[in-house]
């Protein structure tokens, strides 16, 4: 099964539409959102086509296929307008015999790892900087952000299929990848 990953929407209708088009083109079974759904945050500029209400409406159309976690810009009031839960600080998914630990990154991250076993995967957002590497015996992945990239990285998302995690831009170009083996 193919899983689509995105993070840090920050209320941008423009970039969410691009991400949902990529999700459809990838023909993924599920979508993982790594937090910061609706609000842009006090440290971020207003993103292109900032429209939290319309972002919520679009995401609700995919509610049955979304696995999501809370970002530092998410709140209980945001969850009231979404048809899927977003307030858990992390989620875990079993994938081909390994645990995917899904989180936003403001609590757990590569510098503050949760309890993981050899071969497990930490997947987080928050930094707006894509990453795909192995640190010791743990895989560390950040798909970047669809909306507000940093450090000269492109707007990006991730796709996990057949034990390979690929980070892509909206033109479909893979610019980082890692085999989970």
From TrEMBL:
It comes from the Bacteria. The keyword Hydrolase applies. Pfam families: Metallophos_2. GO terms for molecular function: hydrolase activity; metal ion binding. SUPFAM superfamilies: Metallo-dependent phosphatases. Residues 1-161 form the Calcineurin-like phosphoesterase domain. PROSITE patterns: UPF0025. InterPro entries: Calcineurin-like_PHP_lpxH, Metallo-depent_PP-like, MPP_YfcE, PdiEstase_YfcE_CS, Phosphodiesterase_MJ0936/Vps29. Keywords: Hydrolase, Metal-binding. It is an enzyme of class 3 (hydrolase). CDD domains: MPP_YfcE. NCBIfam families: PRK09453.1, yfcE. Belongs to the metallophosphoesterase superfamily. YfcE family. PANTHER family: VACUOLAR SORTING PROTEIN VPS29. This is Phosphoesterase.
């Amino acid at each position: 099964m193919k899983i689509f990953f995105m993070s840090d929407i920050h209320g941008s209708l423009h970039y969410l539409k691009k991400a949902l088009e990529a999700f459809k083109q990838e023909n993924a079974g599920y979508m993982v959102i790594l937090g910061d759904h609706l609000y842009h945050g006090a440290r971020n500029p207003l993103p292109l086509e900032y429209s939290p209400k319309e972002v919520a409406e679009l995401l609700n159309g995919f509610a049955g296929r979304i696995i999501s976690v809370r970002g530092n810009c998410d709140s209980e009031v945001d969850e009231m307008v979404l048809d899927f839960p977003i307030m858990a600080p992390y989620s875990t998914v079993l994938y081909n015999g390994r645990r995917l630990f899904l989180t936003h990154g403001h609590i757990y991250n590569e510098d503050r790892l949760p309890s993981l076993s050899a071969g497990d995967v930490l997947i987080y957002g928050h930094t707006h900087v894509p990453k795909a590497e192995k640190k010791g015996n743990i895989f560390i992945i950040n798909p970047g952000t669809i909306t507000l990239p940093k450090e000269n990285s492109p707007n990006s998302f991730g796709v996990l299929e057949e034990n390979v995690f690929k980070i892509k831009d909206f033109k479909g170009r893979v610019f980082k990848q890692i085999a989970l083996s």
